[in-house]
Amino acid sequence: MLLLAGLSTTGCSGRSRRAPSGLVPTQQQQPSLSGDGSRLAVIADQRGRPTVQLRDLKSGQLLQLRHFSRHQPHSSPSLSWNARYLAAVIQRGSRKLVLIEDRLTGRAHPLRLPAGQDPVNLSLAPDGRELAVQTATQGRWQVVVFNLSDLLEPDRPGGRRVTTTTQEP
Amino acid sequence: MILVSLLGIILAGCSSSGLRPQPGLNAALQRSADSRREPALGQRWLVSIASRNGRERIELVDLRTRQPVPLPGLNQAGSQPVSVSVSGNGERIAFVRTRDGRTELMLYRRGAAALQRVPVEPTGVPRQVSLDGEGKRLAVQVSREGRWDVDVIRLP
Question: A114 — phi, psi (to 5°)?
């Protein structure tokens, strides 16, 4: 009902709706859509701590994440095509690092940037093969692109899984 | 002592294994702007806000050629980009800009070099935007009545 009430028409530019946030409305920031447009990651306050949340847009349901329940504050979430991979900046001790959760295998890939750089913003390529990271280096913003093909299988449109490794049943 | 330091650097490099920098591309990105922020990747595209001589512009780089591609009509005089996102095929760019004291959500279609404003309803101030792979749906962070919402908008 709340969701229906939130539907509105925006002239010739399409239809907009407020992303559902459950019965208790929470503030949501830093949205990131999956490539197929079916999932939405945001940063929401959980007990005062900025935390990544992932939602299925069709059902409105929150999806379980294994590896994003701690190391807040989280920021800058980014999703691959079918939302198999969710990347975000997390805080571990005094350092910020990139954490990529593989929602298919349940694995976590914590990635510390080289040369002591701290990630500020990031973007995962739709197929998950590249990662662009904004860093602060010598007092200026820079963008550095990393290849992840040694680390992640591609997450391609249509959910086709391409792998050479043995798959668990 | 130097050897120990070098070993430390090498080991630190190993600890971030799986992250393989792209030296040619990264050097080109550094050379071509005084600073760069808000990166967003498409399948073979990187869009970001690049600053040169104190002016910020939205720039789309073809990752295969490492060269920026022309975006006629996108960066307008007196316009300050805030956030930017690109569709998977690089055809559509959604961005938030401030211009003449207004903050606007915009959509740019590269094929037609067409720029249009996307209404935010109910009224609010857009801040951060994300396009899906086909550029047919966008999510935008909006400030309304002192709180942050996220709207999802279907695009024609």
Answer: -65, 160
The rounded distance, in Å, linking the Cα atoms of B53 and A61 is 46
- Give contacts of A141 with chain B, Cβ < 8 Å: 35-37, 51
Reported in sequence order, the residue ranges of A57-169 that DSSP labels E, i.e. its strands, are 62-63, 75-79, 85-92, 95-102, 108-111, 119-124, 130-137, 140-147
DSSP A13: G
Identify any residues that bridge with A159 across adjacent strands, giving them in sequence order. none
**Residue B133 forms part of a structural domain:** yes
Q: How many domains does chain B have?
A: 1
- CATH number of the domain that B131 lies in? 2.40.10
Q: Give the CATH number of domain A26-151.
A: 2.120.10.30
Whether B127 contacts B96, CB under 8 Å:
yes
Residue identified by tokens 């990752």 is: B63
For residue B8, the model assigns a pLDDT of 39
Q: What residue of A is the nearest CA neighbor of B118?
A: A13
What is residue A154's three-state secondary structure?
Answer: coil
Q: Identify whether B44 is part of a domain.
A: no
Q: How confident is the model at residue B114 (pLDDT cuts 50, 70, 90)?
A: very high
Q: Which domain holds residue B86?
A: 70-154
User: Residue A152's closest CA among A136, A128, A116?
Assistant: A128
Asked if A36's CB is within 8 angstroms of B132's CB, the reply is yes
Give residue-wise pLDDT tens across range A80-109: 999 999 999 999 999 999 999 999 999 999
Q: What angle do CA A11, B84, A70 make, to 5 degrees?
A: 110
- Distance, in Å, from the CA atom of B27 to the CA atom of B17, rounded to the nearest integer, reads 20
Find the CB nearest B156 among A14, A130, A132. Answer: A14
The 10s digit of each residue's pLDDT in B11-32 is 333 345 678 999 999 999 999 9
Residue B105 lies in a domain: yes
Nearest CA in chain A to B138: A33
Q: Which residues contact A51 (CB under 8 A, 6 or more apart)?
A: A43, A44, A45, A68, A69, A72, A73, A74
